[in-house]
Amino acid sequence: MSDAAVVLRWLVLYGAFLVAALPIARLLFPSAPDDGAGFAIPIATVVVTMVAFYVGQFSFGPWTALVSVAALVALGAVGHRLAQRRGLADYDWNRVAGAFAVFTVGFGFVLALRSMNPVMSGWGGEKFLHTGLLNAVLRAEALPPEDMWYAGKPVRYYYGLPVFNAVGAFFTNTSVEYVHNVALAGYFGTLVVGAYSLCGWMTRDRGYSRRLGGALGVFFVAFAGNAVTIVRFALGQLPRDLAVKWGRAAFNLNRSDYPQILFEQSSLSSWGWWDTRYVVEGTLQEFPLYSFVKADMHGHTVTTGFLVLSAALAYAYVQAPMTARKRRAGLLFGGLGTVAGYFGVTNTWSLPSAVGMAWLAVVYAGPHPATLVPGRVGERVQAVAPNRDESRRSLVLAEAWRTVLAAVVAAGVGVVGYVLASPFLLASVPPNDGIGLLPPRTTAAGVLLIYGALFALFAMYLFTRLSAVEDSSATDVAKALGAVAVVVGIGALVGDLGAIVVLLPVVAGAWLAMRFRESAGFEAMLVVGGIGLVLAMELVHAKVHPFELARWNTTLKVAIQGWVFCGLAAGPIATILVGDVRDSAPSLAEIRQSSAAIAMTAVSVVLAVVLVSSALFAPLVVATDVVEPYQDGVEPSLDGYAQHRADHPQEVAAMEWFEDEVSETQSVLWMERETGTPPFVEKPGLSRGWQNPVSTLTGLPTVAGWFHETGYRGDAPYYQRVDDVGIIYETNNARSRAVLLDKHDVQYVWVGPLEREEYDVGSLESDPGIEAAYRNEAVTIYEVHHDELVNQSTEISSSP
């Protein structure tokens, strides 16, 4: 199978998904300028994933893929009939094609990145984890799949994403070594087209350029980077002593390789993208492009496009009139509730964000939350608070009651999401110790190094909501700059409370603008959501593995969500500011003559700085990860296993024999897969790299896999298995080995270079019931016949 054939098949699949889901998108987003086409692919993905997830609880395989896609087609057909009845079936196919073209741009961008380094590596991330999960799902007879790194037990990790990827692999008949790279590209395309559609829709509704708004939305959401990159390069322009003195804040404060890392990251010749997320000690704060360049199939990375879908549903709710009560309820509980359920099985960390979007939308929308309740009951609920126009006190009480009721509604959305995801949440969610309060916090410098460009943009936006650009004087600008300086100055003085001091005024200002300024729109609500998530990381954290690093996983999973919502706000905001400056004084001469010249200059300077500082990361990545390898003669490929075949030919050959030996081929129409999951033993992966390659690249379950299992099973159970594996390999007591082989139902024992390096491997073949089934220069595979093993009730005289 050629790379081009794989890409073409997946593009056809995504195009078919778009067309199938278009009627549903049209019904959900009737006022969207592209007929909702920008949201059709994520809608299709949600439908296919959830149907395959539910059906797969009983039986999983090619037939499950057929059923899930058939359900999408059926739902689309019903949606088309409804659209016809409502006069919404007149799709603008040019706009639809345009949406698919935007998706293809994002899809192609990640394919270009991955084509220069397609390997499913065990280093620098968790591609081995996600490759193993995909292989395990492809082999599964039912969900959840058996854990490839913990034989005999189901996975305790998000398996919704590999379920969808498996459906795509079945339908396109794609060999597993290609699936990760091409599916990752599909998720990025979903993010790009969603951002373009939503931001273009928002700016069009505000009377500004749809194309510019969409393009800037894509930039800020999908291609922008944090501010630390340009700061580090600026430090490199300072005298060496000054750079070392002031540069430590731009890196984890306790880095042992400082200042060497400073010199590397401030030079074009040695810059690398990996360290961009390491700014604040004890945290991993990524943005979407970084995560997709890192290219793990993490839920927090690839579900970013569905955060955009949740924001679009919130925007559709905001636009719905009070009289459309059923539509409003449907968007909340049917739309956002379903997206919350999708997050529950793919990235539970995002489930609260969908609930939060529902809460903010109900607060912000014109209709009172009580109007979701029909009849007099709703009127009585609304009447609990006084009329907001009676007095300032009444206004405060009415707003508070509105906010509380919105929270109640949002809780209902959360309940829907939890119920939809309950098969996973009740059985397979990784263990945790709940929520912790007041974790280690971030200084003002730390938060500004990451989010400084967005902070500047939002501060300028809030200023222009209070005083229009054309009406602003030099005094107004001076007051605004002074306010920002005071906030930042106080933040710098209060140590690790600095981030809270800097972020809280932005959230409060955006909330007030959202509720009380007609010049503010839905973008202000998104600022509340995005900056609110960044602020939340300073106040709460999830108590999850690794427990000794309180914010490690919380920041990794939440920061990117905050970035997505901030980016969705930043695109329209930048478009609005550009339009306001242009409308205030269309020519340079008029700017000079205008009384608002300083305000227009200030806005223009902020926009320029924000765009330049945010834009640096993407071209650097393209230069280092695409252009340089191509110039060095690297042949483009999407085969994630090719490097393994080149580096470990004997081991891969043994794996291929092993798979053929233990698998049965299941064929349904044009779709095929290998089934069978006999437990086997290989060396446990106590570090990253080429560890547990057999279970990872085949999906066959090994007794003890990567050390990640400590986070899913606990330290004691995992290391007990590690000890058992050591005894199986090293003992010369046939009875002891037989006991453990029976305990874990081991059918095969793999002895390759890793095992010989780690263990003093005993004479396995001399034990009754164990025979060599395969040999090559590097690997011997032993088959275990349990009915022939040493009688475990009989004492065996042998050395320990």
Description:
There is one protein chain. The radius of gyration is 28 Å and the shape is globular. The chain has a 4-stranded mixed β-sheet. The protein has a two-stranded antiparallel sheet with strand order 1-2. It is 63% helix and 4% strand. A hairpin with a 4-residue loop joins strand 7 and strand 8. With 800 residues, the chain is mainly alpha-helical. The protein starts with a helix and ends in a 16-residue tail after the last strand. It is built from 33 helices and 8 strands. Helix 7 (176-205) runs parallel beside helix 14, helix 19 packs antiparallel against helix 20 (474-493) and helix 31 (715-730) crosses helix 32 (734-743).
Please, how many helices? 33
Kindly state the number of beta strands: 8
- Based on Cα principal axes, name the global outline: globular
pLDDT under 50 segments (min length 5)?
793-800
Strand order of the largest sheet: 5-6-8-7
Largest sheet: 4 strands, mixed
SS-derived structural category: mainly alpha
SSE blueprint:
Layout: H1 3-28, H2 40-56, H3 62-85, H4 93-116, H5 127-139, H6 160-172, H7 176-205, H8 210-223, H9 228-235, H10 240-247, H11 260-265, H12 288-294, H13 299-302, H14 304-319, H15 325-346, H16 351-364, H17 375-382, H18 392-425, E1 435-437, H19 444-466, H20 474-493, H21 498-516, H22 522-536, E2 540-542, H23 552-584, H24 588-593, H25 597-615, H26 617-631, H27 642-647, H28 649-662, E3 664-668, E4 671-675, E5 680-681, H29 693-698, H30 709-713, H31 715-730, H32 734-743, E6 748-751, H33 753-758, E7 770-775, E8 780-784
Parallel strand pairs: 5-6
Antiparallel strand pairs: 1-2, 3-4, 6-8, 7-8
Helix pairs in contact: 1-2, 1-3, 1-7, 2-3, 2-6, 2-15, 3-6, 4-7, 4-26, 5-6, 6-7, 7-8, 7-14, 7-23, 8-23, 14-15, 14-16, 14-23, 15-16, 15-18, 16-18, 16-22, 19-20, 19-21, 19-23, 19-25, 20-21, 21-22, 22-23, 23-25, 31-32
